[in-house]
Model the fold of this input.
Amino acid sequence: MTQRIAADAGRGLGHLVVTVLDVLKEVLERQALRRLDAGTLTPDQVEALGQALIALELRFAEIRAALDGIPATEGAK
Done:
Protein backbone atom coordinates (compact mmCIF):
# COMPACT_ATOMS: atom_id res chain seq x y z
CA MET A 1 0.00 0.00 0.00
CA THR A 2 2.91 2.38 0.66
CA GLN A 3 4.09 1.90 -2.94
CA ARG A 4 0.69 2.87 -4.31
CA ILE A 5 0.66 6.10 -2.33
CA ALA A 6 4.16 6.93 -3.57
CA ALA A 7 3.19 6.16 -7.17
CA ASP A 8 0.05 8.29 -6.92
CA ALA A 9 2.08 11.15 -5.44
CA GLY A 10 4.60 10.81 -8.25
CA ARG A 11 1.87 11.01 -10.87
CA GLY A 12 0.43 14.06 -9.14
CA LEU A 13 3.82 15.73 -9.11
CA GLY A 14 4.30 14.80 -12.76
CA HIS A 15 0.99 16.45 -13.66
CA LEU A 16 2.02 19.55 -11.72
CA VAL A 17 5.35 19.73 -13.56
CA VAL A 18 3.62 19.37 -16.94
CA THR A 19 1.11 22.07 -16.02
CA VAL A 20 3.88 24.47 -14.97
CA LEU A 21 5.77 23.75 -18.20
CA ASP A 22 2.67 24.40 -20.28
CA VAL A 23 2.02 27.70 -18.52
CA LEU A 24 5.66 28.72 -18.96
CA LYS A 25 5.54 27.86 -22.67
CA GLU A 26 2.36 29.90 -23.08
CA VAL A 27 3.94 32.93 -21.38
CA LEU A 28 7.06 32.66 -23.55
CA GLU A 29 4.99 32.36 -26.72
CA ARG A 30 2.88 35.39 -25.81
CA GLN A 31 5.99 37.44 -25.05
CA ALA A 32 7.47 36.40 -28.39
CA LEU A 33 4.29 37.47 -30.20
CA ARG A 34 4.32 40.84 -28.41
CA ARG A 35 7.89 41.43 -29.52
CA LEU A 36 7.05 40.39 -33.08
CA ASP A 37 4.02 42.69 -33.17
CA ALA A 38 6.07 45.58 -31.75
CA GLY A 39 8.63 45.13 -34.52
CA THR A 40 11.55 45.15 -32.09
CA LEU A 41 13.19 42.03 -33.52
CA THR A 42 15.59 41.73 -36.42
CA PRO A 43 14.98 38.93 -38.95
CA ASP A 44 17.84 36.97 -37.37
CA GLN A 45 16.27 37.37 -33.94
CA VAL A 46 12.89 36.22 -35.28
CA GLU A 47 14.54 33.10 -36.71
CA ALA A 48 16.44 32.43 -33.48
CA LEU A 49 13.29 32.92 -31.42
CA GLY A 50 11.33 30.52 -33.62
CA GLN A 51 14.06 27.90 -33.37
CA ALA A 52 14.24 28.35 -29.59
CA LEU A 53 10.48 27.88 -29.21
CA ILE A 54 10.61 24.73 -31.35
CA ALA A 55 13.50 23.36 -29.28
CA LEU A 56 11.62 24.21 -26.09
CA GLU A 57 8.53 22.35 -27.27
CA LEU A 58 10.64 19.30 -28.17
CA ARG A 59 12.34 19.33 -24.77
CA PHE A 60 9.01 19.70 -22.98
CA ALA A 61 7.69 16.72 -24.98
CA GLU A 62 10.70 14.69 -23.80
CA ILE A 63 9.96 15.68 -20.21
CA ARG A 64 6.28 14.74 -20.62
CA ALA A 65 7.33 11.35 -22.02
CA ALA A 66 9.71 10.82 -19.11
CA LEU A 67 6.83 11.57 -16.75
CA ASP A 68 4.87 8.62 -18.14
CA GLY A 69 3.37 10.19 -21.25
CA ILE A 70 1.37 12.87 -19.49
CA PRO A 71 -0.24 14.95 -22.26
CA ALA A 72 -0.14 18.74 -22.39
CA THR A 73 -2.81 20.28 -20.22
CA GLU A 74 -5.66 21.92 -22.05
CA GLY A 75 -6.22 24.59 -19.40
CA ALA A 76 -2.88 26.26 -20.08
CA LYS A 77 -3.73 27.04 -23.70
